[in-house]
Amino acid sequence: MEFFELMKEAALDAGQDISENQYNQFIKYMRLVQEWNEKINLTAITEDEEVVKKHFIDCIKAFKSEAIRNAKTIIDVGTGAGFPGLPIAIMNPNVKVTLLDSLNKRINFLNTVVRELGLKNVTTIHSRAEDGARNKELREKFDVATSRAVANMAVLSEFCMPYVKVGGYFVALKGPAVDEELKGANNAIKTLGGEFKGVISIEIEDTDLRHNVVEVKKIKACSKVYPRKAGTVNKNPIK
User: Fold this and answer.
1) Which residues contact 46 (CB under 8 A, 6 or more apart)?
2) Nearest 5°: CA angle at 46, between 40 and 60?
3) Dihedral over Cα of 18, 3, 38, 100: its sign
4) For strand 164-174 and strand 210-218, is the pairing parallel, antiparallel, or unpaired?
5) pTM of the shown model
6) Closest CA to 228 of 161, 171, 174, 143
7) Which of 26, 98, 150, 209 is positioned for an S-S bond with 204, CB 3.0–4.6 A?
8) Interval 134-158: pLDDT, tens
9) 79, 99 in Cβ contact below 8 A?
10) How far is CA 121 from CA 68, 130, 167, in A?
C-alpha cells in the first residue's frame, strides 16, 4: 500500500482526514529528519516505511483521544524530533502547538521544519521540562500536555501535569507495557492534581504494533512544590 493511502486509512481510523498538501508536508518533514539525523541524533528510525508507520501514524493515532481532538492549545514536553507535536500540528492547523525540548540543536531542527513546512501554529521553546513548568507564562496554561517516549508514567506525570489547566488533560503516548507503568504512577497522578481517565488501545496499520494513549484529567491545581528541580524527578519519582 502506498504511504498516502496508508496514512489516509490511519487518519480515518482516528476520525481525521489527510489532504494531499498535508501528506506532502509529512514527506518534507521526513526528509528533514533523515537529513538532520546525520548531524544530530534525532531518531534510530530512519527508513521511509518505518518513519511513516512508527512515527507519523503512531502520532496521528493520538487523535483517538477526545482531549487531543478538542484542544485549542497543546504543549509537547520533551518533543525531541517533534513527536507527537508536529504531526498533530500538521493534521490540525487550528490547534496552537508548543514544542518544548532541552537540547538547542533539536530546537534548531524543529525551527527549520516549522519554517520549511510553513506551519503558522507552532512555537518552540528551549527549556528543561522542570524549568519550563515554573514559568508563569507556561504553568497551567494548556488544554493538553502530551509526551511520547520520554520517561515512565510516574516521572512523565511530574514533567507534564504542571503545564495543564485545571479541566485539561495530560495525554501520554505509550508502548505495550503501559499497565505496569500505571500501577507505579497512580500516586504521582493524584499528587499532581490528576485523575486517571483511561487507556485507548491503538493499532498501527500494516504492522503488528500495539500502542496505547493514556488520558489523565487535571482536576485540581498542582502544588507549587512540583515539579521538583531538574535532575530530582528521574532519580526519585513520586511513589
Assistant:
1) 33, 34, 37
2) 105
3) positive
4) antiparallel
5) 0.96
6) 161
7) 209
8) 999 999 999 999 999 778 899 999 9
9) yes
10) 15, 24, 23
CA distance 85 to 76: 5
Q: What angle do CA 34, 86, 97 make, to 5 degrees?
A: 150
Question: What is the rounded CA–CA span in Å between residue 221 and residue 197?
Answer: 17
Q: Is 218 helix (H, G, I), strand (E, B) or coil?
A: strand
- Mapping DSSP onto H, E and C, the string for 110-147 reads HHHHHHHHCCCCEEEEECCHHHHCCCCCCCCCEEEEEE
Residue 58 is inside which H or E element, if any? Answer: helix 58-60
DSSP state of 103: -
Contacts of 151 (CB under 8 A, 6+ apart): 78, 159, 234
Q: What is the pLDDT of residues 177-195, one digit of tens each?
A: 888 889 889 999 999 999 9
Q: In residues, how long is the chain?
A: 239
At residue 230, the pLDDT reads: 86
**Amino acid (one-letter) located at 120:** K
Q: What is the predicted pLDDT for the residue at 1?
A: 60
